[in-house]
What we know:
The chain is α/β, with parallel strands linked by helices. It has helices spanning 3-17, 24-33, 38-58, 64-88, 110-121, 135-145, 161-172, 190-196, 205-222; strands at residues 97-102, 125-128, 149-153, 180-184, 200-201. It is built from 9 helices and 5 strands. It is globular.
Amino acid sequence: MSNGEREILERIKRLLANIEIDKVPDAVKEALDKGIPPLKIINEALAPAMEIVGKKFEEGEYFLAELVAAGETFKEVLGMLRPLLLKSGKKIKRIGKVVIGTVRGDLHDIGKNIVATMLESAGFEVYDLGADVPPEEFVKKAKEVDADIVAMSALLTTTMIEMKNVIEELKKAGIRDKVKVIVGGAPVTEEFAREIGADAYAEDAVKAVEVCKRLIEEKRKKS
């Protein structure tokens, strides 16, 4: 890697990690103009920057606003790079497949959106079903894409029970033993996750990434 390449990749990483988000798209365009491959920009600048943002959030240096801003910028730039990746035939190396959604009856999706973006930046292939998702839709998509993980969010105590319904539907479809289930959201607790038979609980987006990585490792060891 030339010094010029290294300098611009470090600059992109620094800008995103420092939440200087308005400067990130232009820096990425500059990198592309200099012939730096899109995959290199993702792997050596954007993904490491999102890791730094995640750590700073965990340590209390950054708050939700910074996490959202970084996530939205990552998503925007990824949208810019995706067509170029397809054209080049290069694929982002994926850790595993996650189907994610907010459960039926619940229209809150800000937290779920942050988790989806953080998972994508960490290297997961994410299938986001949106909000107010019925149990059958989780099952249908999990079967369709051969998902490793089903991730569910709920922000209301009245909709939390839908998480159990999704797990029951996964059992009925005969795929519960093939997928790991992670749950989260403001009213959800680790105890509730255990009660409904979920594999894991995450209190925020950064923890969700850590937990999903662990679940994939566990799944691989068993297979």
